[in-house]
Design brief:
This protein is mainly alpha-helical and 554 residues long. Helix content is 73%, strand content 1%.
Length: 554
């Protein structure tokens, strides 16, 4: 175990040193330098940062746990992201770079006015502080504790919550150092270094897992058949009724959450705003799309193999204990050589830190440019603006550390709960974004009304419950309001289309602009597109459809 801890610390420190060496001498005096890396990122860094910002314990543990329970259908969260990224590269990114924005709320101001910018900026910051960061910290800490058996290093009698809080604090300190003192370039560079490690480590787990169930004379196809004999639905891409990602949800909430996450979520797409030109931005986004399509090999397949091993290996089954969330950790400890466990733990920490420090940087950007500079200190110097962002990052990090165990500890189905919380603000923001992009007449008031109606509708659907009682007044059917619609994802789809219709009606009647909206090029970067981009994008979309078709008939 001491050697495992040593290799873990070595790789973690190595990434920090390499990041410092790469970004030393980089300018961080202006808001563009700090928040957008001086608009200097090339395609490789954008792709690496996009992937690592997204990839964290929610995928490593959550998706594999989903695959353990439901098979290949959970790949939708990864594969459909490839299509969403194609839309980002070809449709959204040219408009974002044309506007020269650093934040999504800035785009909303250009389209709708200052009130919408302020409302959306505050919502992003609050959601990151109370939902995304606590979830990332909590799942990261619990995963790391199990992987490195950290509980054994604490004095006897130390409570689980105390250990979790200690590990969360460690993650927050290391991740905050990147975001607060290094800015976006340090985040992007560290993401890329960690990305290499995560890619290698994730693929090693998949390969070693596959080897663990192969017998002499087996081929890839014979192993697939062996798994299918034990579970005929293991490789079915469309899922079945009752599963979390049954095929109808691909056209409602799953699609909408995925689409917003990759096309309009500040935390993710900020690194594409930092592209040195449109061509590099499109290259980076499409490279990321390619790897998202391949992601199920590392993020879904091990979970399917773990489910098979439970039926074949009593010792492994005992370690899992029927808890899907333990399946990935048990699989890693079973198939990975001991000398690689520390390396992989460091890679996992890198994924956690990537999401954590990227969200901190995005929160700082939103506060500094959309709140501090606009309302608190309009005459502030660039150094003061950057300092305000660093102070915001520190405050958000501290509050997230405190909130993480309070919100998620003891919560059953933590991944599903997290997705429901995301839907509360994803759906109304996506509705006003889509109308704003493709309808020229809706004004800011129509966006505000739609925005607040959407928040209310999603909050009611997410948090309100009902109770059905029998003749003796006993509760026989407690559940979420969204279950009336068959799925929380169907409810999200219904609310989204109601919001779109509402804003279009308002924008064409009582809340219509006096003149149509026209976007102007501010000249921030060269907008010459990457010529192969449409062809690469079409190939990626066809690949996604081909994967779904092949697995549906497998």
């Amino acid at each position: 175990m001491a050697f495992t801890i040593a290799t873990f610390l070595f790789f973690t420190i190595l990434v920090a040193v390499l990041t410092w060496w790469t970004v030393r001498g980089s300018k961080r005096e202006t808001d563009t330098d700090f928040f957008l890396a001086g608009r200097s990122l090339t395609g490789a860094f954008i792709a690496g940062s996009l992937l690592l910002t997204n990839l964290s314990t929610e995928q490593l543990i959550g998706l594999n746990a989903g695959a353990f329970k439901e098979g290949m259908s959970v790949m939708a969260w990864e594969v459909i992201a490839g299509c969403s990224l194609v839309v980002l590269a070809l449709v959204f990114l040219p408009r974002y770079l044309k506007a020269g924005i650093a934040t999504i709320p800035q785009f909303f101001e250009d389209r709708y006015g200052g009130a919408v910018r302020t409302a959306t900026a505050i919502l992003f910051i609050v959601a990151y502080m109370l939902v995304l960061l606590p979830f990332t910290l909590y799942t990261g800490a619990t995963g790391l504790i199990g992987m490195l058996d950290l509980q054994s290093y604490f004095p006897g009698g130390t409570s689980d919550i105390a250990v979790i809080w200690t590990v969360i604090s460690f993650i927050a300190v290391v991740g905050g150092a990147y975001a607060i003192f290094g800015g976006l370039k340090a985040v992007a560079v560290s993401d890329t270094f960690n990305g290499v490690g995560l890619l290698v480590g994730g693929l090693l787990i998949a390969v070693f897992s596959w080897q663990a169930i192969m017998e002499p004379g087996d081929t890839v196809f014979s192993v697939v058949e062996k798994i299918k004999q034990q579970n005929p639905d293991a490789f079915q891409s469309l899922g079945k009724e009752g599963e979390d990602v049954h095929w109808p949800t691909l056209f409602t909430g799953v699609l909408l959450l995925n689409f917003f996450y990759w096309c309009s979520n500040q935390q993710i797409i900020q690194r594409s705003f930092a592209a040195k030109n449109l061509a590099e931005g499109q290259k980076g986004v499409l490279i990321a799309a390619f790897f998202k399509i391949l992601a199920p090999f590392a993020l879904v397949l091990p979970g399917i193999i773990a489910a098979y091993l439970v039926t074949q290996d009593p010792e492994f089954a005992a370690k899992v204990g029927g808890d899907a969330n333990k399946s990935y950790g048990a699989l890693v400890s079973k198939v990975l050589p001991a000398w690689l466990v520390g390396f992989f733990a460091a890679v996992v920490v890198g994924a956690i830190l990537s999401t954590f420090n990227s969200v901190l940087n995005s929160s700082a950007t939103l506060f500094s440019l959309d709140v501090y500079k606009r309302f608190l200190r309009p005459t502030a110097s660039m150094k003061e603006v950057v300092f305000s962002g660093q102070a915001c990052s520190l405050l958000v990090a501290l509050l997230a550390v405190v909130a993480a165990p309070l919100i998620f500890h003891g919560q059953e189905g933590v991944f599903g709960f997290f997705q429901k919380l995301n839907g509360v603000y994803f759906i109304p923001l996506l509705a006003i974004m889509m109308v704003g992009l493709f309808h020229k007449w809706a004004n800011g008031n129509s966006a505000l009304v739609t925005f607040f109606v959407g928040l209310a509708a999603m909050s009611i659907g997410t948090f309100a419950t009902w109770e059905v009682k029998d003749a003796n007044n006993n509760v026989i059917d407690p559940g979420w309001v969204v279950n009336w619609f068959g799925s929380a994802y169907h409810y999200m789809g219904l609310v989204f289309w109601i919001l779109v219709v509402l804003q279009l009606w308002l924008g064409n009647s009582v809340m219509r602009r006096s003149s149509p909206y026209e976007q102007h090029d501010v000249g921030a970067v060269d907008l010459t597109p990457w010529k192969p981009a449409p062809y690469v994008g079409a190939t990626l979309v066809l690949t996604v459809l081909g994967i779904y078709f092949y697995l549906a008939i497998l």
